[in-house]
Amino acid sequence: MAQHLLIFLLIFISVFGCALVGMHMRTRLPDHHLDEESATAIKLATGLIATIAALVLGLLISSAKSSFDTVSGDLERNAVNIIRLDRTLAQYGPEVQSLRQQLKHNYGVWIELLASGNSTTLATLDSPQVLNHISDFQRRLAELTPTSANQRQLQERALDISDEVFSARWLALMQKSGAIPMTLLIVLVSWLCVIFGTFGLLAPRNGTVMFFFLLCALSASGAIFVILEMDTPLTGIVKVSVTPMREALSQLGQ
To answer: What is the pTM of this model?
Structure first.
């Protein structure tokens, strides 16, 4: 979140600063540079840039929302599958009680790591220690010795569900660092700077105009901040809820 706040501040300063530079340039340029024909040409050129910027901004919002929804959906399916896995093990018999306890403990640890929202803590989700816990669980599950056709079928089902559980886990982790290219973000900000600089160039210099330029700069910077937050759904202010996972955890072992 700190990185996103820094980007937000830099964008706001750049955009609003360009508007102020434009207003200052208005007092320096000769009058014929800002006559009606010149202003019309500048507005047309700026309109083209504004249209392109709006399209790119819309695409970024759509991409960030898609990433957020994907991770949220993966975690919800993961919560459902973890209950299915526990119920399948419960049907297998009392000999897998320790395996169910291990599943509940590992799942609880994973939830706490996700709920932290801290980038450093989230980095431990793919650490060797956590990976060993996953491998150990799947190894113990595969080493079960069924004594009936029903137990054999339940073991195969449990193995399939465990693959789905850990696959969803990896899909969520792949989204933790975001997918929006920084180059595209820099280009978009440069377009916003041009647009606001033009606004300042063509606007009269008074407190009301500067106040609304300030609000517009905050809005544009805030939109990019929200995009960046949604693009990293495991960290920051805007992050996916782990409530379904906590509810699933409360059902394990029953």
So the answer is: 0.80
